[in-house]
Amino acid sequence: MEREKKDIKSLDMGELQNVVEALGEKKFRAKQLYQWMHVKLAGSYEEMTNLPKSFREKLREEYSYTCLEMVDRKISSIDGTEKYLFRLHDGNVIESVLMRYHHGNSVCISSQAGCRMGCRFCASTLGGLTRNLLPSEMLDQVYRIQKISGERVSNLVVMGTGEPLDNYDNLLIFLKLLTDENGLNISQRNITVSTCGIVEKIRALAEEKLQITLALSLHASSQEKRKELMPIAYKYEINDVLDACRYYFAQTGRRITFEYSLVGGVNDTDRDAAALTELISDINCHVNLIPVNPIKERDYVQSKKQVIEAFKNKLEKNGINVTIRREMGRDINGACGQLRKSYMEGNR
Ligand code: SAH
Question: Residues with Cβ < 8 Å from 1, sequence gap 6 or more?
Answer without folding.
Answer: none
